[in-house]
Amino acid sequence: MVEVERKQKTVENRIVKSLLIFLILSIVFGVRLLYLDVIKGEEFKRRAEAQWQSVGRRVPGKRGTIYDRNGRILAISIKRYRVVTNP
User: Fold this and answer.
1) How far apart are CA 8 and CA 70, in angstroms?
2) 18-72 tens-digit pLDDT
3) 3-state SS track over 22-57
């Protein structure tokens, strides 16, 4: 009986220690996230805006007419000169 109680106590101690470690790590990560967001947020915003770039280029919009097997037009080209990418 005493042996079972001792094992139970050991298991409970391990659980408590594990939860404390998890709690401490969660607090450390939470504080770090707050620091990066609240304190350093403006700096990161400036750095991100400095890296952003916009390049305007003309891309020819002419492609070709698409026909079916009987020679009827299925699609024609319409001039469009706008291409947008998001890396």
Assistant:
1) 83
2) 999 999 999 999 999 999 999 999 999 999 888 887 777 776 667 788 999 999 9
3) HHHHHHHHHHHHHHHHHHCHHHHHHHHHHHCCCCCC
Q: How far apart are CA 20 and CA 38, in angstroms?
A: 26
DSSP 8-state class, residue 83? -
Residues ≥6 apart with Cβ < 8 Å to 62: 77, 79
Dist. CA 35–CA 79, nearest whole Å:
50
CA angle (17, 18, 19) in 5-degree steps: 90
Under 8 Å between Cβ of 45 and 59: no
Tell me the pTM: 0.50
How many Cα atoms are found within 13 Å in the side-chain-facing hemisphere of 9?
A: 6
